[in-house]
Amino acid sequence: MTVNLANLSGEITTFTTAAVNWAAVALPRFAGAIALLVVGFWLAARAKSATTRLLDGQRHVDPTLRGVIASLVRYSILIVVLVAVLAQIGIQTTSILAALGAVGLAIGLALQGTLSNIAAGMMLLWLRPFRVGDYIDSGSAAGTVKDLGLFATELHSWDGIYQFVPNSELWNKKLINYSRLPTRLNDLAFGVDYADDLDKGLETLLAIAAADNRVLPDPAPIVFVDQLGDSAVVLRLRVWSTSDDYWSVRRALTKAGKDALEAAGLSIPFPQRDLHIKDAPADLIGKAAA
User: Which string of DSSP letters, residue by residue, matches 188-248?
Assistant: First the structure.
């Protein structure tokens, strides 16, 4: 087969010229797009850091919202940067945005769980049933809130366990916030013997409550006979304290109550039963008595 060198040389020249012309136009655009992308990511990171520092100095801004606002600032800048990069390399952003809308719809249908977490996060931020530092319990997760994000909430349990809980788990369930209210009620039960002086026992429990300065005077502590148990009469002591002092007051009064009741001559019986044997053989009764 005969190769026409003249035609081949002309085609090579035409291709080379087209490639050089394309490179002369496209390479500056790509270089500008890369530079714009790098600057955009740097600017987004700096804006997030600056927003965080600014919010940290604002006492009226809740700590729960600071991280979320800083992240929103970063992602907003990144979206603008990506659109500008696409325009820089010559892509029509109108059609891209329309395509992204269709893709976003498909992704949204595939990621309903993730979107529900975002929606739950927004509702938690809006209604704010808890804040950073509160101790909460949803039944499936319990701990101190360390961070509330758009997708999940970070909890640290009392025994040092890290928990990463999806927001939908906290939004769709009953939530108990142990730190929200400033005061809490301690409800303590003490069992005493049926033969003991109940009035003396009640006075003793009131005295130990009055002696603890962490017990709030209003509402005032109350004591009463709660129930007649199988082996003991149950005395109930109810006192109010601040939420921060709840556990320390509970432990202190439990120990002080036992010591004070015993010092006052009352006894705290253990569960016991009386066994009556009816119409039993004499030899069996003799063995039981022995």
Answer: EEEEE-TTS-HHHHHHHHHHHHHH-TTS-SSSPPEEEEEEE-SS-EEEEEEEEEEGGGHHH
Render pLDDT for 221-278 as a digit per residue (tens, 0 to 9).
999 999 998 888 999 999 999 999 999 999 999 999 999 999 999 888 877 666 666 6
Query: Is the Cβ–Cβ distance between 129 and 177 less than 8 Å?
Result: yes
The verdict on 104 and 140 lying in the same domain is no
Q: Are residues 95 and 44 in the same domain?
A: yes
Residues of the chain above pLDDT 70, percent: 72
CATH code for the domain of 140: 2.30.30.60
> Exposed, middle or buried: residue 289 (CB in 10 Å: 0-12, 13-18, 19+)?
exposed
What is the domain count for the chain? Answer: 3
Rounded Cα distance between 135 and 126, Å, is 19
Domain-located, residue 249: yes
Strand-strand pairing, 222-228 and 142-148: unpaired
CB burial of residue 249 (10 Å; 0-12, 13-18, 19+): buried
239 is a domain residue? yes
